[in-house]
């Protein structure tokens, strides 16, 4: 995509909501792309160490958090061919962040990390350290005089609001119009205040940022530009490396691992990709999955800065509420624009179909955002560009399932009904046919 005509053709295809795979011409060797980065590996290790340190406090705050650990299972998907509608060359594994306790999504990683970091620092400024820092009556009294605020399409608010309220903070979540009613209701039940905005995700973030700037006791989690969020996601790579080793999954030049990451603003998928590139270097290939209505990171990577999905003629309306973001995070882009292998776009009908297939064939309860990466193995293996990229090597695929365990029964049933109606053809298979 280095020629002007290629760029303008890509722009048009994105604007037509055409499902497509884009491979990154700026992909560089990992050591080269990681050298001199502003965000360091030491910070990622510190985030992982912080999660270990917080285990006792988290266990006390959330009895259903096993051992206080914010981690999820890695499991095989032997039914991959039937679920995906494409028989992959190698094994397919799932990273079950949908099963992350308390928040029910990948947001637990970044969100808990940022809120707990802030809480710990605030407590230390008031002489509260060690065990007393996070879950003591003195800490609660201190946190009650402070507000933690965030702007969200739903899941980040759910993660941040729940943990902030549990610690004793006043929690204020600015929700965009995409946010599902059940997510708002659940947050209110957890003790958070929900402020509803008529605008999109970017507008909700901007409103929250503005209000927070007026208050000295308000801490704003800025999803469009947050280092602590990014680090919380990146830390996932350390635990995953241990899970892969324990499962006997080799990751090296002869056994590449292709990781499929649903992408909204970019913090979660790019943070995870950043961590994985540090651990596995060029043996890991990170690919982003976005809705056809909101390919904001693909636009940032391929078309340059300042392009919103509205500029492409798209409306940012998608059932994948976790991915309904008009403009990508610059922080996430800067850290990973030479590390991610590419991105593909997925229509909503395909998302519903995979939600239904995953439930019927593998017993999974996933939300539409969480199955965006299910498009990936076919893009990489059946499409011409993907095959050229693989160059004859048989990869293991890891589908990052980013959320869903908290979806209410009725909502999930409605998703299943939409997915069961008519079989939408797989975009990659259709286009490469
Ligand atoms: C937020 C979210 C993502 C993407 O994370 P970003 O940091 O916005 O890119 C993916 N899946 C689900 C379910 C999410 O809630």
UniProtKB/TrEMBL annotation:
**One GO BP:** isoleucine biosynthetic process
Q: According to its UniProt record, which reaction does this protein catalyse?
A: D-serine = pyruvate + NH4(+)
Report the protein name in the record. Answer: Probable D-serine dehydratase
Q: Which residues form the Tryptophan synthase beta chain-like PALP domain?
A: 71-384
N6-(pyridoxal phosphate)lysine, modified sites: 107
Question: Does Metal-binding appear among the keywords?
Answer: no
Which HAMAP family has this protein been placed in?
A: D_Ser_dehydrat
Query: A GO molecular function for this record?
Result: hydro-lyase activity
Q: Which InterPro entries match?
A: D_Ser_am_lyase, Ser/Thr_Dehydratase, TrpB-like_PALP, TrpB-like_PALP_sf
Going by the entry's taxonomy, the superkingdom of the source organism is recorded as Bacteria
Q: Which metal ions or organic cofactors does this protein require, according to UniProt?
A: pyridoxal 5'-phosphate
Protein EC:
4.3.1.18
Q: Output the NCBIfam families linked to this UniProt entry.
A: D_Ser_am_lyase (TIGR02035), PRK02991.1 (NF002823)
Q: Does the keyword Lyase apply?
A: yes
Keywords assigned by UniProt? Lyase, Pyridoxal phosphate
UniProt similarity note: Belongs to the serine/threonine dehydratase family. DsdA subfamily.
Organism lineage reads as: Bacteria, Pseudomonadati, Pseudomonadota, Alphaproteobacteria, Acetobacterales
The record's listing under Pfam families reads: PALP
- Gene3D superfamilies for this protein: 3.40.50.1100
């Amino acid at each position: 995509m280095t020629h002007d005509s290629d760029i303008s053709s890509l722009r048009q295809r994105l604007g037509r909501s055409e499902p497509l795979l884009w491979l990154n011409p700026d992909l560089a060797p990992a050591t080269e792309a990681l050298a001199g980065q502003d965000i360091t590996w030491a910070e990622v290790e510190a985030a992982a160490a912080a999660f270990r340190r917080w285990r006792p406090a988290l266990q006390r705050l959330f009895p259903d958090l096993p051992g206080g650990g914010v981690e999820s299972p890695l499991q095989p998907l032997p039914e991959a061919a039937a679920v995906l509608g494409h028989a992959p060359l190698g094994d397919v594994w799932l990273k079950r962040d949908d099963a992350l306790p308390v928040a029910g999504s990948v947001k637990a990683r970044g969100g808990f990390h940022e809120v707990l970091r802030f809480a710990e620092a605030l407590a230390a400024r008031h002489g509260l350290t060690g065990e007393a820092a996070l879950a003591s009556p003195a800490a609660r009294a201190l946190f009650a005089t402070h507000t933690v605020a965030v702007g969200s399409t739903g899941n980040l608010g759910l993660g941040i609001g729940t943990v902030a309220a549990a610690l004793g903070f006043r929690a204020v979540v600015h929700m965009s119009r995409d946010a599902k009613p059940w997510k708002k209701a659940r947050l209110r039940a957890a003790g958070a205040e929900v402020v509803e905005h008529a605008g999109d995700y970017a507008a909700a973030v901007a409103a929250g940022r503005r209000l927070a700037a007026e208050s000295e006791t308000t801490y704003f989690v800025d999803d469009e530009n947050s280092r602590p969020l990014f680090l919380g996601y990146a830390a996932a790579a350390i635990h995953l490396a241990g899970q892969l080793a324990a499962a006997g999954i080799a990751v090296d030049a002869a056994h590449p691992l292709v990781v499929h990451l649903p992408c909204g603003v970019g913090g979660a998928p790019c943070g995870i990709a950043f961590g994985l590139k540090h651990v596995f270097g060029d043996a890991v290939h990170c690919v982003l999955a976005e809705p056809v209505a909101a390919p904001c990171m693909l636009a940032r990577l391929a078309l340059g800065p300042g392009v919103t999905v509205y500029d492409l003629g798209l409306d940012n309306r998608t059932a994948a509420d976790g991915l309904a973001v008009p403009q990508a995070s610059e922080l996430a882009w800067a850290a990973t624009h030479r590390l991610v292998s590419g991105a593909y776009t997925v229509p909503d009908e395909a998302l519903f179909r995979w939600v239904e297939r995953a439930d019927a064939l593998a017993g999974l309860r996933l939300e539409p955002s969480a199955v965006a990466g299910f498009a990936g193995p076919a893009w990489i293996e059946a499409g011409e560009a993907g095959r050229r990229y693989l160059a004859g090597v048989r990869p293991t695929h890891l589908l990052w399932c980013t959320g869903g365990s908290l979806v209410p029964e009725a909502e999930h049933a409605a998703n299943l009904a939409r997915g069961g109606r008519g079989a939408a053809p797989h975009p990659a298979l259709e286009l490469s046919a």
